[in-house]
Amino acid sequence: MSTQEEETWDDDENTIKFLVASDVHLGYAEKDAKRGHDSLVAFEEVLQIANKEKVDFLLLGGDLFHENKPSRKILHGCMALLRQYCMGDRPCQLEFLSDQSVNFGHSRFPYVNYEDPNLNIALPVFSIHGNHDDPAGSGNLCALDLLSAAGLINHFGRHPSLDKVEMSPILLQKGRTKLALYGLGSIRDERLHRMFVRKGVTMLRPRENQDEWVNILTFHQNRVKHGEKNYIPEQFLDSFLDLVVWGHEHDARGLERNDVQDFIVLQPGSTVATSLAEGETLPKKAFLVRVKPSRKMKFEAIPLQTVRQFYLKDIVLSDTTLNPGDPEVADKIAAFCQEKVEELLRKAEEEHTGNKRQPKEPLIRLKIEYSGGFPMFNTNRFAQIFTDRVANPRDIIQFYRKKVYDKKGNKGGGDADDIDMPLTLRREALDMARVEDLVKRFFAEAEQNGRMSLLTEKGMGEAVKEFVDKEEKDSIQELVKWQVEKMQKHLKDRKAADDKIDEEIQHFRQAYQQRADEEDEDIQIAFERSRSKRPADDDRSDIMDDDDDDGNHVDDLSDED
Fold this sequence. Notes:
Number of strands: 18
Strand content: 15-25%
Distance between the termini: 29 Å
Number of helices: 13
Strand order of the largest sheet: 3-7-8-10-11-13-12
Helix content: 25-40%
Radius of gyration: 26 Å
């Protein structure tokens, strides 16, 4: 960051100024009477900050929408806000230097919206897609493509190839300051990890005067390690980068320098809490970035004033004075927890920003570790006490027990065997984990006779994710049919005897899991077969279809993410 004097940053003619936000998740909990408008309110504040600061553009790091097929209400609300805050007579001073047909080649209108003679754009918005609002279905479209066709945003960073990614930057110039903006919309982490390992990811650089450009990558992948290949290590990224805007992770960690790669990572976090996890308790922010001709950057974190407050507290009952042998201990635990909630409510009142649009009712979560013989109390009765004072009365309490492992890492007896798994999965696990991770963990922890002998956990996880996130009702059935057909062909080619079939199936499954590319291809074939079975009038790519009637929404199963 710069050591120059403050007044030098006010040289508007040569300073590119932009605002960064990510993981807006429009539509999260939209049917909740209290929380239904939280995501739209936070997004409006981001747009208001951008206008107040007179930025040159707004950069979004993915997951603008929470659902792959947002409702009419949410889509309308988003478009209304973009029209209100992004259109106007204020001229855009950014000169677009790169080939727009390459940067926006996927679009029906392959050029930046502020150069469209039919539009008056005062605030350009550049956005990649995330894992929640990625292209899918007939036409391989997403909600961002609708906004792009309407001229409201500039959707960039689409790379449909399954084998390689070639990123051609958006080249912007203002006065003497030059900025190269790279984008990579969300790709399944395991696949992108393999691409990096096999040198299948390329970032093109300007042909001339490369040292004059500030290079920024907008990224939407796992930063935290969830498995051996289920994340993207920072050392995979090119060292010529100056700034990486890392979306997908919801905790607002802000600025962190990678001294090995010599770039700065900006993790803005989400603008709305989509889970009751610890990372969501960090203050929500947008980040103002200024860039000078000298390639120096200046950052300013701007706390959001309208975001609903969230407080989380861990309680270990064995560390309290409560006695598990007391016949009235359940009522005493409830009273103890009630007092803790009251303390957090007083804290929320003290820390309220005073903004009229910030809700009065905070989110509160008590994580109660009740090992050692302590009972649980009635959480429904407890919820009624705070119905009008807490935004999530039914989810305030989460009971869990400490897992016990032996020296070999296996689960031991005692409390570990008594873990209330349905409660854990229904609340915390579903808050923090991705669908495919939950499927993998379920089969990994299942007894031997409960594990799959033919299908793979990876394929089943992807099929369940397709069913949950994109409403592909035939995805699981088609994956099963495809893998069964493949196994039948293998057995036929091998001419396996009846007494050798189980052995051949096990051998084939183990070898199949080692051929990751082949499994990826098979999964995609199965999904295409699923999509081809839709009725002619059932076009899932038309996200204007209204899904509000049945009221059956599946809660967010991803890590935020």
